[in-house]
Amino acid sequence: MTAPLDVPGSATEADPEAVLAGADRKAIQGRSLGQIAWMRLKRDKVALAGAGVIIFLVLVALFAPLIVKFLGHPPLEFHREKIDQSTLTPTGAFGGMSWDYLFGVEPLWGRDIFSRIVYGARISLLIAFLATLLSVVIGTVLGVVAGYFGGWVDTVISRAMDVFLAFPLLVFAIALAGVVPDQAFGMSGDTLRVSLLVFIIGFFSWPYIGRIVRGQTLSLREREFIDAARSLGARGPYIIFRELLPNLIAPILIYATLVIPTNILFEAALSFLGVGVRPPTPTWGGMLAEAARFYTVPHFAIFPGLAIFVTVLAFNLFGDGLRDALDPRGR
């Protein structure tokens, strides 16, 4: 058996002064949960692509008048000279596509499809965002209250959730939107229709986020930091707004990004059924409803359908990536 080699201390031990000097040059910094989530999200190229498409669509909706001014024609302007009066279909190849009419023109009226797609993004995104905001606010407030206080408060709110979840939303939306007159509640025209759709979609969708928030609140209220806040004399409102809500931001954001495409589809369905925003205001669902009468002109239905598909897909991809980034169990 050979004796172990004697290794000098300088070969195995680091010089304390050198360690301190290195620490001074490069300080060790901790990372917040937001920084960790952003690092995860940056590695998800699919989610970033979805976010890029969403930003692009929002910019298109905001600057629709400027885009149409340079690349199209007013969305309500008729171009009968582009229509074959015998067949009522666009003249020229591919539905009248050209540099002046990028997506061609509509049958019968000759309106610019590109301009109507661009302006239709305004209606779809506006209704989807506002309806999501309404449902998230109502669902978060009632979900936190039910989960934190429990008892009869939780019972009443939970039974209300069950009632709303069992409600035939589509049938009610068709009935309510169909009977409301053109002037009501001090509003008229597109303002009334948009407000009505936001109320129908947002108010009757809050139980979904409400159940998620209630379940998370039931788990959080038993945690040590809540007990510590109670022991220090904190009251209910302080605990809800300063302790619970900051820890509920992640599931709320995830739900919001995933419910927006659902609201876009619901608005398109109502417009397709004729109870959404009234013509001639351009909407993607309304364009699909008009295209159903001209099945021999496929481009009339392809472009609004493609706009809905791309928008919904982008929100779903970004929502999935955001969920993975905010998951504390993820690597």
UniProtKB/TrEMBL annotation:
The keyword Transmembrane applies. It comes from the Bacteria. It is found in: Cell membrane. CDD domains: TM_PBP2 (cd06261). The chain crosses the membrane at residues 46-68, 123-149, 161-180, 192-213, 252-277, 297-319. GO terms for biological process: transmembrane transport. Keywords: Cell membrane, Membrane, Transmembrane, Transmembrane helix, Transport. One of its GO terms (cellular component) is plasma membrane. PROSITE patterns: ABC_TM1. It is a multi-pass membrane protein. Gene3D superfamilies: MetI-like (1.10.3720.10). InterPro entries: BP-dependent_transpt_permease (IPR050366), MetI-like (IPR000515), MetI-like_sf (IPR035906), OppC_N (IPR025966). Residues 121-319 form the ABC transmembrane type-1 domain. Belongs to the binding-protein-dependent transport system permease family. This is Peptide/nickel transport system permease protein/oligopeptide transport system permease protein. It comes from Streptosporangium canum. The lineage of its organism: Bacteria, Bacillati, Actinomycetota, Actinomycetes, Streptosporangiales.
